[in-house]
Amino acid sequence: MSEIYDVAIIGAGPAGLQAAIHAARRKAKTIVLGKIEASALYKAHLENYFGLEGKKEGKEVLETGLSQAKKFGALHQPYDVVKIDPEENLFRIELESEERIKAFTIIIATGVTRRKKKIKGEKYLVGKGVSYCVDCDGFFFRGLPVAVVGDESAAAHGALTLSKITSPVYLVSANLNVPEALIKELEDSGVKIITAKAQEIIGEKEVEGLMLDSGEKLDVKGVFIEEGAKGALQLATFLGVALDPETMTYIQVDKSQRTNVPGIFAAGDVCGPPFQVAKAVGEGCIAGLSAADEAHKRRKEHEA
Fold first, then answer.
1. Kind of pairing between the strands at 146-149 and 169-172
2. CA distance 110 to 132
3. DSSP codes, 98-120
4. Residues 47 and 54 sit within 8 Å (Cβ to Cβ)
5. Which residues are CB-contacts of 35 (< 8 A; sequence separation ≥ 6)?
6. Distance CA 267, CA 19 (A)
C-alpha cells in the first residue's frame, strides 16, 4: 500500500525547501522529492540577500535548508517525479525509482530550465524533426529511427515512451544520472544507450542525422531534447493546471499559491519572474502553509 503524505513537494530548491519547512512546522506529513543539485542555486552563490553579508555558496545554502526541513520532520527522496494521477481527494505520484506514493496536496517548485548551450543545427530544425516533448510529438515518428538527448529522468522516460512507438531508439547521454533499475528497464526495452555528447544535428529541410563528439553519426529522423527532470509544465498541464495566459510558460497561482486545480499549489521560478531567491522563499513559505492547511482538511475527510 502506498504511503500517504499530507504534502508532497516536487523540487528541492529554495522554494521547495522553504515550503517543506513551513508545511512540516504546521504538523503536516511532508516529503520533498528531487535533487538539490538540480537547483539553479546549487552551483551559484547568494548575495544581496536580507540578513546575509557577503557571498554564500548556493550548495551550502541548499544543504542547510534541507537539514532544517528534516529537523522539522520532513522526509526527502532524491528522485524525480515522472507521473502524477488524481485519485478522489488525493494524488498518486510515481518516482523515477519506480516507488509510488500518495499525497493529499502537491506543491510544484521545480524552477525553470535555462538552456545556455544549444546543439549546432538545433534552432534551424525545430519542428522539422527536433522536438522538446516526447509526449507531444512522439507519435509522429512511428516507424522512424530517433534519438533522445539528455542525462536525467526526462530523457530516460522519453526514450522508454518512444520504444513503445518506434525503433531504433537511441538515448544519447555523456553522463546518465538515473537509478540502476531505470537503466535496466531501458536496456530491456531495446533502447540503445550511447555514452557521448550530441555535437550537431544534421539536415536542411528536415533532420537527417545526429553527429556525436565521438565522431559517430546516428542516422535518425527525429531528435528529442529532454533535459533535467520531468518537466514541471508537462506534469502540471497533464493535470489541467492553468498557465499564465500571456506567455503560456509559467504556472498561474493566486495569493495563496493555489493553482486552478484543487490540492495543487506552486511556488518559485515556475510561477514566473523575477527569478530571485527572495521571491522563491516567500512563495515557498505561503505555499507550505496553504498546502498544509488544505491537507489537514482532506485527511479529516478521508478518515471520516
1. parallel
2. 17
3. S-EEEEEEEEE-----------B
4. yes
5. 12, 78, 79, 80
6. 8
What gap in Å lies between CA 199 and CA 181, rounded to an integer? 28
| Pair 257, 290: CB distance under 8 Å | yes
Q: What are the helix (H) ranges across 55-152? A: 58-71, 134-137
Helix orientation angle between 153-163 and 180-188, rounded to the nearest 10 degrees: 20
Residue labelled with grid coordinates 538515448: 171
What pTM value is reported for the model?
A: 0.76
Question: Looking up cell 538539490, which residue turns up?
Answer: 36
Residue with cell 511532508: 30
Centroid of chain to Cα 270: 10
Kindly give the confidence (pLDDT) of every residue in the chain, 304 residues in length, as a single tens digit, with 9 standing for 90 and above: 468 999 999 999 999 999 999 999 999 999 999 999 988 899 888 888 899 888 899 999 999 999 999 999 999 999 988 889 999 889 999 998 889 999 999 999 998 866 655 899 998 998 899 987 787 788 899 999 999 999 888 789 889 999 999 999 999 999 998 888 889 999 999 999 999 999 999 999 999 999 999 999 999 999 998 876 556 667 787 789 998 887 777 899 999 999 999 999 999 999 988 889 999 999 999 999 999 999 999 999 998 7
Q: Which segments within 98-215 are labelled E, that is strand?
A: 100-108, 130-131, 146-149, 169-172, 192-194, 198-202, 209-212
